[in-house]
Protein backbone atom coordinates (compact mmCIF):
# COMPACT_ATOMS: atom_id res chain seq x y z
CA UNK A 1 0.00 0.00 0.00
CA UNK A 2 2.93 2.32 0.66
CA UNK A 3 3.52 2.45 -3.10
CA UNK A 4 0.24 4.24 -3.72
CA UNK A 5 0.42 7.70 -2.17
CA UNK A 6 -0.99 9.03 -5.47
CA UNK A 7 -4.33 7.20 -5.20
CA UNK A 8 -6.18 10.06 -3.51
CA UNK A 9 -5.39 12.35 -6.46
CA UNK A 10 -6.75 10.03 -9.16
CA UNK A 11 -10.50 10.65 -8.65
CA UNK A 12 -9.85 14.39 -8.35
CA UNK A 13 -8.08 14.38 -11.73
CA UNK A 14 -10.88 12.31 -13.27
CA UNK A 15 -13.54 14.69 -11.97
CA UNK A 16 -11.58 17.65 -13.34
CA UNK A 17 -11.27 16.01 -16.77
CA UNK A 18 -15.00 15.30 -16.86
CA UNK A 19 -15.75 18.87 -15.76
CA UNK A 20 -13.40 20.22 -18.43
CA UNK A 21 -15.29 18.31 -21.16
CA UNK A 22 -18.72 18.55 -19.54
CA UNK A 23 -20.37 20.24 -22.53
CA UNK A 24 -19.20 17.56 -24.94
CA UNK A 25 -19.98 14.72 -22.53
CA UNK A 26 -23.37 15.74 -21.19
CA UNK A 27 -24.86 18.01 -23.85
CA UNK A 28 -23.36 17.40 -27.28
CA UNK A 29 -23.94 13.67 -26.82
CA UNK A 30 -27.57 14.27 -25.97
CA UNK A 31 -27.24 12.34 -22.73
CA UNK A 32 -29.38 14.83 -20.79
CA UNK A 33 -32.09 15.27 -23.41
CA UNK A 34 -35.20 13.35 -22.37
CA UNK A 35 -36.57 11.33 -25.24
CA UNK A 36 -33.31 11.47 -27.18
CA UNK A 37 -31.98 8.34 -28.81
CA UNK A 38 -28.94 8.92 -26.63
CA UNK A 39 -30.93 9.12 -23.40
CA UNK A 40 -29.67 7.48 -20.19
CA UNK A 41 -31.61 4.35 -21.11
CA UNK A 42 -29.30 3.70 -24.03
CA UNK A 43 -26.75 1.10 -22.99
CA UNK A 44 -28.60 0.48 -19.73
CA UNK A 45 -28.06 -3.27 -19.95
CA UNK A 46 -24.29 -2.80 -20.14
CA UNK A 47 -24.39 -0.35 -17.27
CA UNK A 48 -26.47 -2.63 -15.06
CA UNK A 49 -24.16 -5.54 -15.91
CA UNK A 50 -21.18 -3.48 -14.74
CA UNK A 51 -23.02 -2.52 -11.56
CA UNK A 52 -23.70 -6.19 -10.83
CA UNK A 53 -20.09 -7.11 -11.66
CA UNK A 54 -18.81 -4.37 -9.37
CA UNK A 55 -20.99 -5.59 -6.52
CA UNK A 56 -19.81 -9.17 -7.09
CA UNK A 57 -16.15 -8.10 -7.10
CA UNK A 58 -16.73 -6.27 -3.83
CA UNK A 59 -18.42 -9.14 -2.01
CA UNK A 60 -15.97 -11.70 -3.39
CA UNK A 61 -13.12 -9.48 -2.28
CA UNK A 62 -14.55 -9.14 1.20
CA UNK A 63 -15.22 -12.87 1.30
CA UNK A 64 -11.66 -13.92 0.47
CA UNK A 65 -10.12 -11.06 2.41
CA UNK A 66 -9.07 -13.27 5.29
CA UNK A 67 -6.83 -15.29 2.98
CA UNK A 68 -5.36 -12.35 1.07
CA UNK A 69 -2.77 -9.78 1.99
CA UNK A 70 -3.94 -6.22 2.50
CA UNK A 71 -2.64 -5.03 -0.86
CA UNK A 72 -4.51 -7.67 -2.87
CA UNK A 73 -7.70 -7.18 -0.86
CA UNK A 74 -7.53 -3.44 -1.50
CA UNK A 75 -6.95 -4.14 -5.21
CA UNK A 76 -10.13 -6.24 -5.45
CA UNK A 77 -12.23 -3.69 -3.58
CA UNK A 78 -10.80 -0.81 -5.66
CA UNK A 79 -11.53 -2.75 -8.86
CA UNK A 80 -15.10 -3.20 -7.66
CA UNK A 81 -15.44 0.53 -7.02
CA UNK A 82 -14.07 1.46 -10.46
CA UNK A 83 -16.33 -1.03 -12.27
CA UNK A 84 -19.32 0.16 -10.23
CA UNK A 85 -18.63 3.83 -11.03
CA UNK A 86 -18.38 3.09 -14.75
CA UNK A 87 -21.59 1.08 -14.67
CA UNK A 88 -23.39 3.80 -12.75
CA UNK A 89 -22.23 6.42 -15.24
CA UNK A 90 -23.60 4.43 -18.19
CA UNK A 91 -26.94 3.88 -16.45
CA UNK A 92 -27.22 7.56 -15.54
CA UNK A 93 -26.01 9.20 -18.73
CA UNK A 94 -25.98 6.60 -21.50
CA UNK A 95 -23.29 4.94 -23.58
CA UNK A 96 -22.59 7.96 -25.87
CA UNK A 97 -21.71 10.06 -22.82
CA UNK A 98 -19.62 7.17 -21.50
CA UNK A 99 -17.65 7.05 -24.76
CA UNK A 100 -17.08 10.80 -24.58
CA UNK A 101 -15.87 10.46 -20.98
CA UNK A 102 -13.93 7.25 -21.60
CA UNK A 103 -10.47 8.55 -20.69
CA UNK A 104 -11.33 10.11 -17.30
CA UNK A 105 -13.42 7.08 -16.38
CA UNK A 106 -10.69 4.61 -17.34
CA UNK A 107 -8.15 6.87 -15.63
CA UNK A 108 -9.79 5.72 -12.39
CA UNK A 109 -8.06 2.38 -13.00
CA UNK A 110 -4.96 3.92 -11.44
CA UNK A 111 -6.82 3.78 -8.13
CA UNK A 112 -6.37 0.00 -8.20
CA UNK A 113 -3.21 -1.24 -6.44
CA UNK A 114 -1.09 -3.62 -8.49
CA UNK A 115 -1.42 -7.24 -7.20
CA UNK A 116 1.52 -8.28 -5.05
CA UNK A 117 2.81 -11.01 -7.37
CA UNK A 118 2.88 -8.63 -10.33
CA UNK A 119 4.34 -5.83 -8.24
CA UNK A 120 7.24 -8.04 -7.15
CA UNK A 121 8.10 -8.68 -10.81
CA UNK A 122 7.91 -4.99 -11.70
CA UNK A 123 10.11 -4.01 -8.75
CA UNK A 124 12.68 -6.64 -9.73
CA UNK A 125 12.67 -5.42 -13.34
CA UNK A 126 13.26 -1.83 -12.23
CA UNK A 127 15.91 -2.98 -9.77
CA UNK A 128 17.80 -4.78 -12.54
CA UNK A 129 17.49 -1.85 -14.93
CA UNK A 130 18.57 0.67 -12.30
CA UNK A 131 21.60 -1.49 -11.52
CA UNK A 132 22.60 -1.59 -15.18
CA UNK A 133 22.31 2.18 -15.54
CA UNK A 134 24.31 2.62 -12.33
CA UNK A 135 26.98 0.35 -13.79
CA UNK A 136 27.17 2.45 -16.97
CA UNK A 137 27.35 5.68 -14.98
CA UNK A 138 30.17 4.34 -12.81
CA UNK A 139 32.05 3.42 -15.98
CA UNK A 140 31.43 6.87 -17.45
CA UNK A 141 32.77 8.64 -14.36
CA UNK A 142 35.86 6.44 -14.11
CA UNK A 143 35.13 5.41 -10.53
CA UNK A 144 37.05 2.22 -9.59
CA UNK A 145 34.58 -0.51 -8.63
CA UNK A 146 33.89 -4.22 -8.69
CA UNK A 147 30.38 -5.45 -9.33
CA UNK A 148 28.77 -8.61 -7.97
CA UNK A 149 25.14 -8.77 -9.02
CA UNK A 150 23.33 -5.91 -7.32
CA UNK A 151 26.37 -5.06 -5.17
CA UNK A 152 29.06 -2.55 -6.12
CA UNK A 153 32.35 -2.61 -4.23
CA UNK A 154 34.08 0.77 -4.17
CA UNK A 155 37.16 2.02 -2.29
CA UNK A 156 36.29 1.76 1.39
CA UNK A 157 32.68 0.64 1.05
CA UNK A 158 30.15 -1.53 -0.74
CA UNK A 159 26.64 -0.56 -1.77
CA UNK A 160 23.70 -2.69 -2.86
CA UNK A 161 21.01 -1.59 -5.29
CA UNK A 162 18.15 -2.90 -3.17
CA UNK A 163 14.46 -3.21 -4.01
CA UNK A 164 13.95 0.12 -2.29
CA UNK A 165 16.17 1.65 -4.99
CA UNK A 166 13.85 0.51 -7.78
CA UNK A 167 11.97 3.81 -7.76
CA UNK A 168 8.60 2.08 -8.04
CA UNK A 169 6.65 4.95 -6.49
CA UNK A 170 8.16 7.58 -8.75
CA UNK A 171 7.76 5.19 -11.71
CA UNK A 172 4.03 4.93 -11.09
CA UNK A 173 3.75 8.69 -10.65
CA UNK A 174 5.74 9.30 -13.84
CA UNK A 175 3.66 6.79 -15.80
CA UNK A 176 0.44 8.44 -14.68
CA UNK A 177 1.87 11.87 -15.52
CA UNK A 178 2.98 10.69 -18.98
CA UNK A 179 -0.40 9.15 -19.79
CA UNK A 180 -2.18 12.29 -18.63
CA UNK A 181 0.19 14.53 -20.61
CA UNK A 182 -0.28 12.35 -23.70
CA UNK A 183 -4.04 12.68 -23.39
CA UNK A 184 -3.89 16.46 -22.97
CA UNK A 185 -1.21 17.34 -25.51
CA UNK A 186 -1.01 14.55 -28.12
CA UNK A 187 -3.48 13.29 -30.69
CA UNK A 188 -1.74 10.25 -32.20
CA UNK A 189 -2.21 7.01 -30.31
CA UNK A 190 1.23 5.54 -31.00
CA UNK A 191 2.93 8.74 -29.89
CA UNK A 192 1.04 8.56 -26.61
CA UNK A 193 2.33 5.01 -26.22
CA UNK A 194 5.91 6.11 -26.95
CA UNK A 195 5.69 8.81 -24.29
CA UNK A 196 4.45 6.31 -21.71
CA UNK A 197 6.96 3.58 -22.62
CA UNK A 198 9.91 5.97 -22.42
CA UNK A 199 9.13 6.39 -18.72
CA UNK A 200 10.88 3.05 -18.16
CA UNK A 201 14.42 4.00 -19.27
CA UNK A 202 14.02 7.52 -17.87
CA UNK A 203 13.12 6.09 -14.46
CA UNK A 204 16.05 3.69 -14.53
CA UNK A 205 18.45 6.45 -15.57
CA UNK A 206 17.09 8.73 -12.85
CA UNK A 207 17.60 5.97 -10.28
CA UNK A 208 21.16 5.45 -11.54
CA UNK A 209 21.94 9.16 -11.19
CA UNK A 210 20.63 9.15 -7.63
CA UNK A 211 22.65 6.07 -6.68
CA UNK A 212 25.77 7.49 -8.34
CA UNK A 213 25.57 10.83 -6.52
CA UNK A 214 24.87 9.26 -3.12
CA UNK A 215 27.64 6.71 -3.60
CA UNK A 216 30.24 9.26 -4.65
CA UNK A 217 29.32 11.57 -1.78
CA UNK A 218 29.38 8.65 0.65
CA UNK A 219 32.68 7.29 -0.64
CA UNK A 220 34.66 10.50 -1.03
CA UNK A 221 32.97 12.86 1.43
CA UNK A 222 30.92 11.35 4.26
CA UNK A 223 29.42 7.83 4.54
CA UNK A 224 26.33 9.33 6.14
CA UNK A 225 25.26 10.54 2.70
CA UNK A 226 24.22 6.92 2.07
CA UNK A 227 22.27 6.48 5.30
CA UNK A 228 20.95 9.63 6.90
CA UNK A 229 21.39 12.52 4.48
CA UNK A 230 18.38 14.55 3.39
CA UNK A 231 19.19 13.66 -0.23
CA UNK A 232 18.94 9.96 0.62
CA UNK A 233 15.87 10.36 2.79
CA UNK A 234 13.87 13.05 1.00
CA UNK A 235 15.58 13.43 -2.37
CA UNK A 236 12.90 11.58 -4.30
CA UNK A 237 11.09 14.75 -5.33
CA UNK A 238 14.32 16.27 -6.66
CA UNK A 239 15.01 13.29 -8.92
CA UNK A 240 11.34 13.11 -9.88
CA UNK A 241 11.72 16.66 -11.19
CA UNK A 242 14.85 15.53 -13.03
CA UNK A 243 12.83 12.79 -14.74
CA UNK A 244 10.13 15.28 -15.72
CA UNK A 245 12.84 17.55 -17.11
CA UNK A 246 14.09 14.66 -19.25
CA UNK A 247 10.57 13.86 -20.47
CA UNK A 248 9.66 17.47 -21.34
CA UNK A 249 11.71 17.69 -24.59
CA UNK A 250 10.37 14.30 -25.67
CA UNK A 251 6.79 15.53 -25.25
CA UNK A 252 7.71 18.77 -27.03
CA UNK A 253 9.20 16.87 -29.99
CA UNK A 254 6.18 14.56 -30.28
CA UNK A 255 3.77 17.49 -30.13
CA UNK A 256 5.73 19.49 -32.69
CA UNK A 257 5.78 16.52 -35.06
CA UNK A 258 1.98 16.40 -34.89
CA UNK A 259 1.74 20.12 -35.56
CA UNK A 260 4.01 19.82 -38.59
CA UNK A 261 1.95 16.91 -39.89
CA UNK A 262 -1.22 18.94 -39.39
CA UNK A 263 0.25 21.87 -41.30
CA UNK A 264 1.31 19.55 -44.12
CA UNK A 265 -2.17 18.03 -44.40
CA UNK A 266 -3.74 21.49 -44.36
CA UNK A 267 -1.36 22.66 -47.09
CA UNK A 268 -2.31 19.75 -49.30
Structural summary, described in words:
The protein is mainly alpha-helical and 268 residues long. It folds into two domains: 9-112, no CATH class; 117-260, no CATH class. It contains twelve helices and three strands. A three-stranded antiparallel sheet has the order 1-2-3, with no helix packed on it. α3 packs antiparallel against α4 (70-93) and α8 (168-185) runs parallel beside α12 (236-267). Residues 32-40 have low confidence and may be disordered.
In short:
This protein is mainly α.
Query: How are the strands ordered across the major sheet?
Result: 1-2-3
Given helix and strand content, the structural type is: mainly alpha
Fraction of residues in β-strands: under 5%
Q: Roughly what percent helix?
A: 55-70%
Order of helices and strands: HHHHHHHEEEHHHHH
The global form is globular
Major sheet size, sense and barrel closure: 3 strands, antiparallel
What's the gyration radius in Å? 23 Å
How many independent structural domains?
2
Number of strands: 3
Gap between N and C termini: 53 Å
Spans of at least 5 consecutive residues whose pLDDT stays below 50 are 32-40
Number of helices: 12
* Mean of residue pLDDT values: 85
